[in-house]
Amino acid sequence: MTEHLFPARLEADAGNGPEGPSTWIAGHRAEIDAAVAAHGAVLVRGLPVDGRDAAIAAVRAVLGSPMAEREAFAPRDHYEDGIYSSTHWPADQPMCMHHELSYAAEVPRLLAFACVTPPAAGGVTALADSSAVLADLPSGLVDRFERHGWRLDRHYNPYVGTSWQEAFGTADRTEVERYCAANGVQARWHDDGALTTRQTRPAVLTHPDTGERCWFNQIAFLNEWTMAPEVRDYLLSELGPESLPFNTFSGDGAGLDRATVDHINEVYEKHTVREPWQRGDLLVVDNLRVAHDREPYKGEREIVVGLGTPFRP
User: Fold this and answer.
1) Residue-level pLDDT at 122
2) Which of 84, 142, 158, 225 could form a disulfide with 261 if both were Cys (CB 3.0 to 4.6 A apart)?
3) 309 three-class SS
4) How far from 139 is each of 65, 135, 216, 255, CA to CA, in Å?
5) What is the pLDDT of residue 239?
6) Over the range 188-202, which residues count as b (16 or more CB within 10 Å of their CB) and which as e?
7) Is the peptide bond before 18 cis (omega within 30 degrees of 0)?
8) Are 145 and 250 in contact (CB under 8 A)?
9) Beta strands in the chain (DSSP E)
């Protein structure tokens, strides 16, 4: 292992042999797990990932039994249970730092990303240590969100994100209502068939293994102030402030101003580590300890993503 504080790095020696990436991973699984436990994330470089099928096999090998995604925010292609394409998000728009499904009652502890086609430019999946982010945020802000949690409001609509049928994996309203009741989500149907949901989750998490306190949420990603100004203006004019596709609040219902959202993202940026994708890269991330984003890019980009080890904070 090459010594990097964050993320760790492993150089795969599978390029010249007959074994595929999943075989190499099976033989080095303990080393991969140890690197993630020690550093929060590990980049495996040099695997012979020659296409999507090999990438899917690599993700499956590192996760074991992937978990299905529910309450998806953006559409993906579904390959196998728990294994997907990266989200369909405009290439020229960034996805801010976040922890996967941190708004859900059940979240993946482990994420795996396998690179099939690296972009011509940009497109990095950058990482940030959430305990370092927490330590650098203003204490008053942290205290507020630790006391009240954070709230996410979603209004499923045809403009942004997924339909409610895609997000919940069913077109049966009764099934959606059953899921929401079991997972602490308030659901309200509208006369036109649209769905509004509201949920309040912890904003600070104590890691079950390390005991670290982590800033674990999507407060500064799913907020109205992270939208491109022209998109926000259009949605406000079309839908009104109460029916934006998504917005975040303090758990006591207080809104956030642009300065607060910008400051959270500035602290993330201070602790961001970037490594451009190469074909065959496998990135394994502790989703509780490490936030990730997706930066704008040019050219084709294909990353296979898997979610594993379900956990209820």
Assistant:
1) 96
2) 225
3) strand
4) 39, 8, 15, 18
5) 80
6) eeeeeeebbbbbbbb
7) no
8) yes
9) 8-11, 41-45, 78-80, 83-85, 95-98, 107-117, 121-122, 127-129, 150-156, 186-189, 195-201, 204-206, 213-215, 246-250, 272-273, 282-286, 290-294, 297-298, 302-311
